[in-house]
Every structure is written in C-alpha cells, then in structure tokens.
Design a protein that fits this description.
With 524 residues, this protein is of the alpha/beta class. The protein has 3 domains: 127 residues, Response regulator (Rossmann fold, 3-Layer(aba) Sandwich), CATH 3.40.50; 103 residues, Response regulator (Rossmann fold), CATH 3.40.50; 146 residues, Histidine kinase-like ATPase, C-terminal domain (Heat Shock Protein 90, 2-Layer Sandwich). It is 44% helix and 17% strand. The strands form 4 sheets. A 5-stranded parallel beta sheet has the order 2-1-3-4-5, sandwiched between helices. A 5-stranded parallel beta sheet has the order 7-6-8-9-10, with helices on both faces. A hairpin with a 4-residue loop joins β14 and β15. α12 packs parallel to α13. The two termini are 61 Å apart.
C-alpha cells in the first residue's frame, strides 16, 4: 500500500487550511486527494467515491467532525474507515467524546508535516498487524501506537545558526541545560540538519551570514513540506524596521536583538518554548487517552472471549448431564435451570458490546420477529425460582384478543431478552415480600408490555429514573439497569415509560415495541 495508491479526504471549513493540508499531503507523496468544506459534504463524497482515510477538522458548521465520525461509525459499510481528527481543542471532555465515537488518531494543531506523515504511516501499518487474541497467561500485546504512560516529553530540540563562533557558543551555553541544542555555522549546514530526523522544534537564526543569509534559509525551509512549519526566531544585530518586517513576512514568530542582555534573550525564547511544549504535551495526553481507550476495549474483548469459552464448556457439560438416563426429574429440572442461567450470562456478555455500540451510535438494528410471549414465559419461570425466598407471586397475563396466538414484536431477540429480564428482575427486587408482580402483554399496535409491582419509586429519582447511574436505596445498585433498558428499547424503535402511584403504592413500567411486519395482507 503506497501513498500514491491511496485516496485521502480532507475536511475543513477554512479554505486556507484545506489548501495547506493538501500541499503537505502532496509533499508526502499522496496524489489522490479529495476536499470538503463540512461534514455533510464529506459524507456525500464518502458515499459516492472510494476513500481510504479521512482527515477532518473537529469544529465546523453544518456538520462537525464529531458528528461526521459518529455517522461513519454507525454505517456498517464505513465503520472501519480510518479517521484522523485534527483539532486545537483543549477541552478534554470533548476529546473523550471523539475517542468514544471511535476516532483512529488525533492530531493537535499546529503540527509539522512529519507528524502527519507518522500518523498516516502508523494507521496503514496497523492494518497489517495481527489483532490481539485471547490468552490465559502472559501479557496482552496490542498492535497500536505506543505512548509513554508517564507522558514525559523529551527535551525541546533547538537549532542555533550563526556564523560568529562566539555568539554561537554563547547561545548553546544559554539553552543546553534544559534543551537539546544543535548548532550550525552557515545556512547550508542548517538546512542539512533540518532534513534529518528528528527535526528541530525551534530555530534561532542570525540574519546576516555569508553565502546564504537567514532570510534565504527560512525561504528554503518554507518551500519544503517537512520543514515548512518549524517555528523560527531571528536573532540579529540589525535593528532596522524593514528587516523585522521582512522576517515576519517569512513567518518568523519573533525578532530578537543581539544587543539584548543574555537573560532577556533566554527568557523570551523559553516563554515561546513553553507554548511549543504545551502543544506537545497536549498531543501526548490525547495519544495516551486514545491508547487507554483502545486497551480497555481490547482487554474487554479478550475477557468476553475467555468467559464465553468457559460458559460454553459449562453448558455442554450441563446438557450432557441433563440427558443422562440416570438423572431423576428433580435433578434434570435443576440442570435445566443452571443451563438457563448460563445462557443468560452468555447473553449479558454479548449485550455488553452492543450497549457500547448503541451509546456510540454504531449499532445497526436488523429487525426480526420476536415472540415476546414465549420469551416472557421463560423469564417469569426463571424469576419465580430466583426470588422464591421472597414468596412473590409472579403472574403473566397475555391479555391477547385472539386467545393465545404468539405475540410478536419486531426487534432483536437478544436485546429484547436482556431488556425484559433486566426490568423483571428490578421489579422483583423492588417488590416487598409476599406481594405480586404482574406482567401483562397488550395485543396492540405497538405491542405493549406492562410490569407492575408494589412499592413506589423514591421522589428524588423519579425525574431521572432512566438516566445513567440513577439509583436510590438499593445496596450494590449501579444505576445502569433502567438506563440500559431504555437504550435497548430505543435501539429497537420502541420506548419505556414509568408511572408510580403513591395512593395505591404501585409502580408500572410500560415497554412499547413495534409489531412484526405483516407477511400477508388480508383481503377486504
């Protein structure tokens, strides 16, 4: 995979920034480059043309970079498309949203072309690396960009250029204790040092030098993609305004007179280096956040894989034992209950990944007919066994107008199972001992499932009952049960509501789900 064979889409609302990025990419050997001025225009291009990678600004009108990323990750055909977010954003919560949405890499402005090149090379190199696999022993090896967990930045690299040996030595002495300092006695040597990795973070250069003056050196640096963005400070004995204007027009960040006391020069340079290091630290911080998120996902995937393997083994043994002729009726019943419980745990493991996809707008519903009546029959039987010590009466009323025909919804079987199991479990936990939990299925359009129990929801959490982490008076409660149930309903184009009545001390949760599509139309 070579740069010339890849198509890159550059998305930025500022034309100047789009042009600058395109120029950098061409300098790095990329030839197939598309541009868009906002996320909506970019999305149209992505769906019309083959795109290998997206470079997008974060803050744009019409559709932001984050909104574009979420739409791409929610589309099964585009979910693996590499996406680099370019931003000057310093608000970490915003960056966390970008990471959670599934960004491939982050690039902090301002950056030099070599940083962009490294990001692109890392992304395409990772496509050929083996993904981490499950292992019971040994470390997890991740095929991702390595980031120093301590976030210790290497010393800033400064290149000092001056034809006067005394001045050159003095400048080196001024900065060598805190920074990596290189020196060059002429423009040609300076250019050579700037073409070798790692390139300088800052150049301090004299204006008046033989053969090639400082202005010409900077012109040549600006003409090359890899060195065009290196900050330059002119340090010179010249004081005329015309020279200063000329230097600033070439993009110099400052113009320092050699007549200044060394301490003043040192302070001015160090103040600018603080800005450079701040951006470098921000990039390191964001890289670490991105890597931590990737590691968490990889470890969770490995754990799910190992747990599912163990559960599969347990299920196999239980099923063999249940079919053994030597097992009596009581033992078979207990084994079937164990089998149902293991299947439930397996369902929850599968669900954990789907909840993450739903939260990050990546979930794609493939609706099928779901027999809600049959599903609830099994869940009610499981709840009766689980809450036997509370002596609850758990009733299922199909309330079907057609006398018992299967009550079908349109949705995802696993999501429906997890949602209804969660809600029924919560109702049984909230119900006082010796009370009744009533589950009613309304044969309506949409299909409605009502779960009613004795007891009321505390006043303090009624308004945010379905919000994440909302819980009250429940030992060990995480506050994600009703939140996840609501997400599962919404993902299936349904809804959940809660009604709590103080006068008769009851709480009712109502789940609405679309009915299955009509396979045949009745003739009129």
């Amino acid at each position: 995979m070579t740069p010339s064979s890849l198509t890159i889409l550059v998305v930025d609302d500022l034309e100047l920034m789009r042009r600058a990025t395109v120029t950098q990419l061409r300098g790095l050997g990329y030839e197939k480059i598309l541009t868009a001025s906002d996320g909506a225009a970019a999305l149209r291009l992505i769906r019309e043309r083959k795109v290998d990678i997206v470079l997008s600004d974060l803050n744009m009108p019409v559709m932001t970079g984050l909104e574009l990323l979420r739409v791409i990750r929610a589309d099964p055909a585009l979910t693996q498309l590499p996406f680099v977010m370019i931003t000057a954003e310093a608000e970490r919560s915003c960056i966390q949203d970008v990471i959670v949405a599934g960004v491939t890499s982050l690039l902090v402005k301002p950056y030099i072309p070599i940083n962009l090149q490294n990001r692109l090379e890392q992304i395409f190199a990772s496509k050929t690396q083996v993904k981490p696999t499950s292992t019971s022993t040994g470390p997890v090896v991740l095929g991702q960009v390595k980031v120093d967990a301590n976030l210790n930045l290497s010393p800033t690299r400064i290149l000092v250029v001056d034809d006067n040996p005394t001045v050159l030595e003095l400048m080196v002495i001024m900065f060598k204790d805190d920074h990596q300092v290189q020196s060059a006695a002429d423009g040609k040597s300076a250019l050579a040092l700037c073409r070798v990795e790692p390139i300088p973070d800052l150049i301090l250069i004299d204006v008046k030098m033989p053969d090639m003056d400082g202005f010409e050196v900077v012109r040549r640096l600006r003409a090359e993609t890899a060195t065009a963005q290196i900050p330059v400070i002119f340090v010179t004995g010249a004081t005329d305004e015309e020279a200063q204007i000329k230097g600033m027009e070439l993009g110099a960040v400052d113009f320092i007179s050699k007549k200044m006391p060394p301490k003043v020069i040192q302070t001015k340079v160090k103040n600018f280096i603080k800005f450079i290091d701040m951006r470098r630290q921000l990039q390191a911080d964001y890289d670490a956040m991105l890597e931590a998120n990737r590691m968490r996902e990889d470890v969770e995937n490995i754990n799910r894989h190992d747990l599912k393997g163990s559960l599969a083994a347990i299920l196999s043994m239980v099923q063999v034992m249940a079919c053994d002729d030597a097992a009596n009726t009581t033992q078979v019943g207990q084994l079937r209950l164990l089998e149902t419980t293991a299947l439930h745990v397996m369902s929850m493991l599968n669900l954990s990944s789907e909840l993450y996809n739903i939260e990050t707008d990546r979930f794609k519903l493939t609706a099928v007919p779901v027999d809600v009546g049959q599903l609830l029959l099994g869940l009610v039987e499981l709840a009766r066994s689980s809450f036997a010590e509370k002596r609850l009466t758990i009733e299922l009323d199909t309330n079907s107008a057609d006398g018992g025909e299967s009550l079908m919804a349109s949705g995802d079987t696993m999501l429906c199972y997890s949602m209804l199991q969660n809600l029924l479990k919560n109702a049984c936990e909230a119900a006082p001992p010796d009370s009744t939990v009533l589950v009613t299925i309304k044969d309506e359009h949409p299909l409605r499932i009502l779960l009613q129990n004795k007891g009321v929801v505390p006043v303090g959490i009624r308004e945010n009952f379905f919000e994440k982490y909302a819980t009250s008076g429940k030992p060990g409660g995480t506050g994600i049960g009703t939140y996840s149930a609501r997400l599962l309903a919404l993902a299936q184009h349904g809804s959940i509501t809660m009604d709590t009545q103080d006068n008769d001390s009851t709480t009712t949760l109502t789940v609405s789900l679309p009915r299955r599509p009509m396979l045949f139309s009745n003739p009129q």
